[in-house]
Amino acid sequence: MPNYDMRFKMFSSVFFILLFFSNSDLGINLTFVSGQCLQDQKQLLLQLKNNLTYDSSLSTKLVQWNESIDDCCGWPGVKCDTRGRVSSLDLSGESITDGINDAGSSLFRLVFLENLSLAQNSIGAIDLPFGFGELTELRYLNLSNSGFSGQIPLDFSNLTRLRELYLDGVNISAKGSEWCNAISSSLPNLRVLSLSNAYLTGPIDSSLVKLRSLSVIRLDGNNFSSQIPEFFADFPSLRILTISSCNLFGVAPAKLFQVKSLETLDLSGNGDLEGSLPEFPLNSSLQHLLLSNTKFSGNVSESIDSLRMLSNIDLGGCSFSGPIPSSIKNLTQLVSLHFSANHFVGSIPSFAFLKNLTEIDLSGNRLTGQIPDSLWEGLEKLEFLDLSGNTLEGELPASLFVLPSIKVLHLNNNSFSGVIRDSFNSSSSPLEVLELNVNNLEGPIPRILFELRNLLSLSLSANKFNGSVQLTDFRKLTNLVYLDLSYNYLSVQVSETAAIPSLFPRLGTLMLASCNLQKLPLLRNLSSLMVLDLSDNQLHGEIPNWIWEVGDGVLRILNLSHNQFSHLQEPYAFRNHHYLDLHSNMLPGEIPVPPRTAVFVDMSSNNFSSPLPANIGYSLTSSFFFSLANNKILGTIPPSLCNATRLRILDLSNNRLHGKIPSCLFENTLGVLNLRRNNVIGDIPDTFPVGCGLETLDLSWNTLQGKVPKSLTRCTEMGVLNLGNNDLNDNFPCWLKNLTGLRVLVLSNNKFHGNISCLGDSITWPNLQIVNIASNAFNGVLPENLFRDLKALSVDQDGLDHLNFLFLTASHIYYQDSVTLTLKGLDVELEKILNIFTAVDFSNNHFSGIIPETIGELKSLYVLNLSHNALSGHIPGSIGNLEDLESLDLSFNNLEGEIPQQLASLTFLSFLNLSYNNLVGRIPQGSQIQTFATSSFLGNEGLCGFPLNRTCTDHSGSPAFQHPTSEEEEQKALDNGIYISAALGFFVGLGVIFWPLVFSKRWRRCYYNFVDKAVMLVLRPHHHQLEDW
């Protein structure tokens, strides 16, 4: 009998130990064999409760501790051992704010505690108190997000039995050597170390390697700013290693991926961490591999199928390339796969029959090919599929819409085409989100979409769907929250009897841009609507005053632009709109005062003709963007605009404003100020402040006088400066060299004078791509070093981009600069200044001397105009190096000698004018130069050869004397130059309409091949074509 009792006791002890360690990683909800609570233990718990400050309305444990209940071992959060001593105390989430401040707390007299949690409380940022060291029996300690702070107390060294330590969110604020040594020297048996978001710094010290029993290391969200230590791969029992978002850099040790015991590896969110995936070992235990938002690169090896236990892999936002390995189909335990925002190429591999797979994200790669039904067979648990932002093509398999568990399907921004086949019954589909926008899908909207009864969000915009559709066709989709049919070839019919609120009572976003609408939908009383886009339609007449009440005050975004509305129904009252776009209508009369809540206000391109309200600035205190461009607004610029302190873009261009510019306007936070084409007078105020944030300043086509203010040098971010077509009278403002970010400089058509010799000194315009100082009175020679220092004109431009000012980052809304080219009196205004467009225009001045040979270093130059000066000498042969040159005008100078043969090699040259110089000899022969008309060479009596009607008669190529023809006499009276005047306009967003250069076949071809796709969302930008008054 004694032997039986001994065996029973041994079995009980072993069972308890196994039970403890099997649950130790999961928290402290352990199963204990409790005895009757000892009286002293009960009194200590009651003292602890009385000393604690907590919110009884939020408490679920302390609030139930009652002295009348004898057995404290049954109180919530309390467990006892077999002798009735408190061995486990869980006070997590009890809203405790005070009461554990020092070693005298009764908590620290519960000396038999083995498990203690104070996590998720709000203790008032006090230092970790001494006293924890009294709890020498502790195996588990969780103080995460408790409100404690400070360094690890010295008495932690008494906790030699501690196995698990959780200090996540505790503000330890210690260096690597400090916290690593404190833990490794005090807690020799530690198995779980969790110190996420503990304000630790690096580097991580090698003293941690002493903790040979560590199996779980969680250090996420600290600022280590160091490399990953190699010794992490040396812990023999390591199962979990997470060090995400820690500012780690360098190359991740490859042997980390070879640790066979490792189940979870999370290195995500370390933007400077590099590495690649090695060949994976057989029998790896890896289940979770998270490397997103790092600089990992290279191919993903086919050996990935060695990770037979893998359930979650996230490589999103890295730089992986090559094909996605087909061996992924062997990862039968896979639940989640995220490969988004990389450089993967090739076709999508089959995921068929991966029955555990719930999420696939392959968005933002370079994947091609089709996606047939066979790729998705057997995916019974798939809930989320994102293939957006690739170049996938072919027809869409309708079976995708009826996968048995699918809820979210993103197929947008691809090249899918054809008709979606109606071959499945979709009424039972669980699909909630379907995005097909920005593809080439065609035909009528498929009936299968009208049956998706669980659908919350449907986006079909920017396709080629056609035909007529009634909003009532979607009547079965009663749960719809988001509907976008914009920019197709649809004609959306509006029923005069079917009210939208009754069809879609939960609708929050309705986007029907460019849907051939002729009537407003019946939206009155739709209280849930927050976004309404009816732009680019055929709506006309009055804007009814009930539209401002739609959404019952929650309508935040309203876009009625590009219609034919002729007036606002009176009386009207704006509500709490954040985005109000009425531009490109025919609204006349007084300017509506925008709501004070508005962040974006665009009323440009209407017929408003009143003065600006004197107090309008007080209504723009929340606004970032305000435009009244292209109206007929009278009066002066009200100083109240200076009270719009958040305003980043102010565009009042192309109006009839007069008077002076309020000096306080430059003291504001503006990033863009456009007052072009008004009647503004006086000096430019010299009030640009320190820290000036202006990036675009366009004051052209006014009557401004005086000098360019020197305080403008404080605008160090200036990229576009247009002061052309005024009455400014000054020497060249040499201090503009300090604006190192300049990309466009226009001073043309003023009264500037003197030489520009200061530009011969080292200038700092590395980005300048357009410089126009034409039609002034500048004189002297052209500095040789000027052309050598214009670096942006001397290097090849990479890709197509546009000059713009991004002012609402989250919505990708930006102000688009523009340029006007004048060719023989024809103004061509480009809606985007491409970064590949470059121009130098020094025409109509009094420059003399030679054209420097250094001009040949501007190999990215597109337009060069030095006409109407007094330049002499030879045309430099180095101009033949300007391989991208498309327009060259050297007319009306005193140039002499022969035309360099190198000009014949300029294969992209589309406009050439060398007329009215003193050139002699034979016109060079070449396929391109032969295309120019006689007018390109008139007024050079010594020239001969095609296309002139003058033959070369001697060996030197000189012509026999001939009287000028009537055509030459007529042309001599004309000014054939091409004059470039930069005119900055206002274009918000990602518009695609672009007026090509009429003289440039090459640029047209380049632009149409590469111009960016429109993103057809409600905050999508609209394209403004400004009239050239």
TrEMBL record:
Q: Where in the cell is it found?
A: Cell membrane
GO biological processes: defense response; response to other organism
Signal sequence residues: 1-27
Annotated Gene3D superfamilies: Ribonuclease Inhibitor
User: In what residue span(s) does the Leucine-rich repeat-containing N-terminal plant-type domain sit?
Assistant: 39-81
Alphabetically ordered keywords of this record: Cell membrane, Glycoprotein, Leucine-rich repeat, Membrane, Repeat, Signal, Transmembrane, Transmembrane helix
List the transmembrane segments: 978-999
Q: Which InterPro entries match?
A: Leu-rich_rpt, Leu-rich_rpt_typical-subtyp, LRR_dom_sf, LRR_N_plant-typ, RLP23-like
Reading the lineage from the top rank, the first entry is Eukaryota
Q: Does the keyword Magnesium apply?
A: no
Q: Name the GO cellular-component terms.
A: plasma membrane
| Primary localization class, coarse | membrane
Keyword Membrane present in the record's keywords: the answer is yes
Per UniProt, what is the membrane topology?
A: Single-pass type I membrane protein
Family the UniProt entry places it in: Belongs to the RLP family.
Q: Report what the protein is called.
A: Receptor-like protein 12 isoform X1
Q: Which organism is it from?
A: Sesamum indicum
Its organism's taxonomic lineage begins at: Eukaryota, Viridiplantae, Streptophyta, Embryophyta, Tracheophyta
Whichever gene encodes this chain, its name is LOC105174595
